[in-house]
Write a structure and sequence with these properties.
By secondary structure, the chain is α/β, with parallel strands linked by helices. The protein has helices at residues 22-43, 69-85, 108-113, 119-127, 138-146, 195-205, 224-234, 335-350, 353-361, 383-386, 397-402, 417-430, 432-435, and strands at 6-12, 49-52, 92-94, 151-153, 158-164, 167-174, 210-215, 239-242, 249-255, 258-264, 273-274, 277-278, 284-291, 296-305, 311-314, 323-327, 378-379, 394-395. The strands form four sheets. Strands 1, 2, 3, 13, 14, 15 and 16 form a seven-stranded mixed sheet that branches.
């Protein structure tokens, strides 16, 4: 009998286990297990892996001591799932989230020293990495080392390899939480992982048939200076699984021959609905059914309908029929295109001499140029025509970006023409995946 080359993944995230919520969480886990078993039967799949993308527990300082939340997580979620799915412990893959961080272990002196504002400086930290930098997650790495999985540790994160259904499966478990200090949304845009971390972990699995990346935070939670480089490195993977934002963000990034599926799982707990009142976010999970021979990936979105029903079902509130299908593995030469986009973005980021000068002398000045831009006053008539009481139309930057017309900007010296071009250029770069337009400045 020839085995099918396929891989079925249960993708779950963000359950925030703590002692006071145990009874509610146990109920959710029971409903989860019921639905997972039902899904296997209805879709004729058999889960091979469970990928958990962070925030198993609520507080890292209570992970091993006090409430021992990590042990609670194993007893309440991990072991019951593995038992029902008949999987060994090595098939449950973790990455740390911001709630895994033990904030009591953060050294303010080291914290200040790790602050970086450029990609070069971030990469230098990783190249000269010291284990004290990840002290806030030291217990997490110690736990991972004891699991006896097929893993290889990097300076940060770890990689996992195993043969499943005659497929060599590789997972890069990227640590995006090592710079988190538990400050919530105020950390958005301030974390960093470094492309070097991803390169090292990818190198360990580069020979695998299916290459998966797990990372708790989405790209827009990272320092702006490394976002493009990190996105480039993530483009080497077939699938990228994420958590943190408590909502499903399902897409496939396709640029010429690049194809990478991104799936961001919803949270399992706390619930959207508590006694009929909306709380926040989206509760649910995802199942990925990869048929390697056909080059297909079917993703089943499952939502928890807490109001009245209290059960999981097809996520029709997320997408049609709660299912999405993608083609996979069409991959070729794409490095050159990305380098062009990266180089042009760097140019538009730095073309304003005034902005660059202010940024150098003011450490509190916004790092993102778009944060300081003021919408300019533009009209479709010159000042000379305006003086003749001719009707004029006010033009917005967005109108220019959306227009297919040729546009000629005229203005007095130092009125801001270069800044307007910079704003237009950055808009095209930031929306390149949708527009496919490369701005050229001459």
């Amino acid at each position: 009998m020839v085995k099918m080359k396929k891989l079925d993944i249960l993708h779950i995230s963000d359950i925030h286990i703590q002692k006071k919520d145990c009874s509610d969480i146990v109920e959710i886990v029971n409903r989860l297990i019921e639905d997972v078993l039902r899904l296997q039967e209805h879709k004729n799949i058999t889960f091979d892996l469970i990928c958990f993308t962070g925030d198993l527990i609520q507080r890292g300082d209570k992970a091993i001591e006090d409430e021992k939340q990590w042990d609670l997580g194993l007893e309440i979620l991990v072991k019951p799932l593995l038992k029902e799915l008949k999987l060994p412990f090595s098939r449950f893959i973790f990455v740390p989230g911001n709630h895994e961080v033990d904030t009591k272990r953060i050294d303010p002196v080291i914290e200040k020293g790790l602050e970086r504002g450029s990609l070069e400086e971030i990469n230098k930290v990783i190249k000269n990495f010291n284990s004290s930098y990840r002290e806030r997650l030291s217990y997490f790495y110690e736990v991972m080392e004891k699991q006896g999985k097929n893993i290889t540790f990097g300076k940060l994160g770890y990689s996992y390899k195993e043969q499943i259904n005659e497929l060599n499966v590789g997972i890069a478990c990227v640590d995006s939480a090592w710079r988190s200090s538990g400050k919530g949304v105020s950390e958005k845009g301030k974390l960093y992982v470094s492309p070097i971390q991803i390169q090292e972990l990818f190198g360990n699995i580069s020979d695998c048939d299916i290459k998966i990346c797990m990372m708790h935070h989405p790209i827009d939670w990272l320092e702006e200076c490394e976002c493009l480089e990190v996105e480039r490195e993530l483009g080497k993977f077939d699938v990228v699984l994420r958590g943190h934002v408590h909502e499903e963000d399902l897409k496939q990034v396709v640029r010429n021959s690049i194809k990478t599926i991104y799936s961001t799982a919803g949270k399992l707990y706390p619930l959207d609905y508590l006694e009929g009142h909306s709380i926040d976010g989206y509760n649910g999970y995802s199942a990925l059914n990869i048929d390697y021979q056909k080059g297909k990936c079917n993703i089943y979105i499952r939502s928890y309908y807490g109001k009245n029903r209290k059960e999981f079902d097809a996520g029709i509130n997320i997408c049609s029929n709660g299912e999405v299908s993608f083609n996979m593995f069409s991959r070729g030469e794409w490095q050159q295109e990305f380098d062009v986009i990266k180089g042009i973005k760097s140019f538009f980021d730095n073309m304003s001499e005034k902005y660059a000068m202010i940024r150098k002398i003011d450490s509190q000045f916004p790092k993102d140029f778009m944060q300081i831009l003021v919408e300019p006053v533009l009209n479709d008539k010159s000042e000379y025509v305006k003086e003749k009481n001719v009707n004029e139309k006010e033009i917005k930057i967005r109108d220019i970006v959306l227009s297919n017309d040729n546009i000629f900007l005229i203005g007095k010296k130092e009125i801001g023409k270069t800044t307007i071009l910079q704003q237009i250029g950055l808009n095209y770069i930031n929306e390149y995946e949708q527009k496919g337009i490369i701005p050229i400045y001459i």
